[in-house]
Amino acid sequence: MTLYELAPLPFAYDALEPYIDAETMHLHHDKHHQAYVNNLNAALEKYPELTNQSIETLLTKLTELPEAIQTAVKNNGGGHANHDLFWKILTPPHQVEPAGAIKAAINKTFGDFETFKAAFKKAALGQFGSGWAWLVLNADQQLEICATPNQDSPLSAGKIPLIGLDVWEHAYYKKYSNLRADYVDAFWQVLNWQVINDCYQKALK
Ligand code: MN3
């Protein structure tokens, strides 16, 4: 049986300071994300054939999986995939504006970058309790902002995530306490638009 694995962070734990603190990154990556991976592997122990597939594939066809493991894959597989994307789109603060095809698509869909950021923030603040805010490419190949509760992946709703912002308290509470809005504002300072643009172009048919 192939096991799902937690990849190391693509940067140092303190690389996102002062926007996201090192202590949060240690806990978030090493404890929270690791727990999703461990629980996912445990849930799939009796279904070794499923672990040969990418986690994205499992989440895309969630309702076709054996009923006994659907909830575990939704929660822990979602947790694994969502965090994988989250680490991938973060980068030490240096480039804060979108570029390339994603920039053109954001402007076309939302008007301009500021309007897009405001709409995304609204989704992030409007997600009651734990969950994620997303920029996705929907089934009509259009950009769309949405939010999901818990670790639900947009993939299970036929949408390809391009940007995901974790709004679980574990993602920000140590530094920002109850001020989720400040954490959302800081997020724009550590986004890797190169990677997001690559995700967008890969998602386009
Ligand atoms: Mn998290």
Describe this entry's structure for a reader:
This protein is mostly helical. It has eight helices and three strands; from the N terminus they run αααααβββααα. It has helices spanning 22-43, 55-60, 67-89, 100-110, 113-126, 173-176, 180-187, 193-203; strands at residues 131-137, 143-149, 160-166. The protein has a three-stranded antiparallel beta sheet with strand order 2-1-3. Strand 1 and strand 2 (143-149) form a beta hairpin. It is globular and about 50 Å long. The structure holds manganese (III) ion. The site of manganese (III) ion (MN3) has 7 residues, from helix 1.
How much β-strand is present in the residues?
Answer: 5-15%
Poorly predicted runs: none
Counting DSSP H or I runs of 4 or more residues, the number of helices is: 8
Mean pLDDT metric: 96
Instruction: Outline the biggest β-sheet.
Output: 3 strands, antiparallel
Largest beta sheet: what is the strand line-up? 2-1-3
Provide the structure class. mainly alpha
User: How much is the radius of gyration in Å?
Assistant: 17 Å
Query: Level of helix content?
Result: 40-55%
Whole-Å distance between the termini? 32 Å
Task: Name the bound molecules.
Answer: manganese (III) ion
| Overall 3D form | globular
Number of strands: 3
| Secondary-structure element order, N to C | HHHHHEEEHHH
Features:
single chain, 205 residues, mainly alpha, three-stranded antiparallel β-sheet, 3 strands, 10% strand, globular, binds manganese (III) ion
